[in-house]
Structures are given as structure tokens and as C-alpha cells.
Predict the structure.
Amino acid sequence: MARAPRRTSKKKPSKRPGPVPGLDQARAATASKSLLGPLQTLSLDIREQFREGLRRRGHTTRPVHFQAVANLPQAGARLTSLASRAGISKQAMGKLVEELEGIGYVERIPDPADGRARLVRFTKSGIALMRDSLVVIDEIWSEYEAILGPKKLVQLRDSLAKLNHGISSQRSHNLAMKLELED
């Protein structure tokens, strides 16, 4: 059986545009204004140091668990209140509380004010987690303070807080939901 003759194709000219004058300089100038890299590096470092500090102290949490833990008052709270404080859905908070219950950091008890409702509160292990969290946060602060100095670190914190406050609540809520899905 004879083969069909091989087609030879002519190279088509590239549709890639040529160099754009000044683009490299514009990119370099814009890069000097970018907050993304430094903030992302700082955020990753804080998260990793926090996670490692708690792990060294024997805790088995995930970063997403702190949406519940950080918003839970020592006296306890109803699930709906806890979800509202964290800015996430009741269902998402229910899942976090269930996980935290499973590893022994929180428990659900009847609400003394309304026997039909339940309160989420810390167990002894949960209180130890909170105490250890505060120690780890203080260690991270001390490390950064040694790098920047106390005054500059406070200025950085205050500037970031002011910037965050300036962001609309809807954008903040959308970001919190996205972070919840990533963890």
C-alpha cells in the first residue's frame, strides 16, 4: 500500500507582538509599589510560626479552626452568635465546631438561659490552646520587634489596621469566605 505524500507545511508567521518600548521600566516602577509580595511573605511566616509553635506544644489544629477559637468567648457562645462574630455561615461554623469537638478543644452544653439551645465552650484543652496561642503570638511579636524595633512594629501594625479598616466590609467578607475555602 502506497503512502500518501507527506505535506510540507510552511511556518506561519508568529502572532507574538514585538517588544513594547518602556514596558520593562514601567513594570519595575510598579513593582516598587507592590504590597502583595511583602504582605504575602509576612502572612505565610506568621501562619507557619504560629502553626509550628502550637505543634511544638502538642496542639493539633488547622489554621481554619481559629475562625472559631478566636471568636469564642471564655463563657461560651451559641453557634449562630459564633458564626456571626467570625463572619461565616452557621453551617461552616458548625463544621469547625464539630472538628474542634472531635479533637477535644470545645464542647457543647445546654444553654442555661434556654434549655433548647446549646452553648459552645472551651474544654480544659481548649483553654490550654488559647493560653499557648497567646504565648506563640508574643514570641512572633518579639522576633519581629527585634528586626524592626518596637516603635516601627507598632507603626506597621497600626498602618495595616487603618488600611484594613478602609476596605469595605463586603470586600472583607468576601476575602474571609475565600480564605475559609482555601484552608
Summary: The first strand starts at residue 77 and ends at 78.
